[in-house]
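Shipment paperwork, digital attachment
Item: protein structure file
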Amino acid sequence: MRFTRSLVLVFALAPASTALSQNVDLGASRIIDLTHSFNSETIFWPTSPSIFKLERLSHGQTEGGYFYSANSFSTPEHGRIETGTIVLLRTGWSSRWPDRERYLGDDTPNDASKLRFPSFGEDAARLLVEERGVKAIGADVASIDYGQSKDFIVHRIAAARNVPGLENLTNLDSIPVTGAVVIGLPMKIEGGSGGPVRVIALVPGR
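Attachment content:
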């Protein structure tokens, strides 16, 4: 699915006495690009642990005979994650529930080798668990490792620091970016290595 969004921002770099409500004739105006291109040479704050990365996912003709192009990108951002934070990854995948094939990426019985869904990667897990000291991570998908993972490195990184992983979450679009209190109570299974958990979020306001 593709969509196009058009947004015009007009900044008034003029004395305060200048009327800011004047009409702008876009047809008779020049557009000046005030933004640097994002690429591998983009300059970030000196303490940033990463750089801008663009990964080609698809580019070319499909089996259906049409052209398809898609990329994935990552870039540093400002909001530092504090020690003791619970980080929940919202991919939107929970909207596919309970369609097993769409949610897992495959519904072949007794075969987990073809699963396809997004989740945390090794770099993100190490940053969150080892460097930021988060208390738990979770995602609105079937695993804290992405579907095609063979080594389950995110599970291993989290387990090494005794950081719980919350999976199959939903309604993450209803909680704020920060400020919610998350409560997760797993079933009390003596000697168990994991189990179903009831997770709720307490959000300020009514």
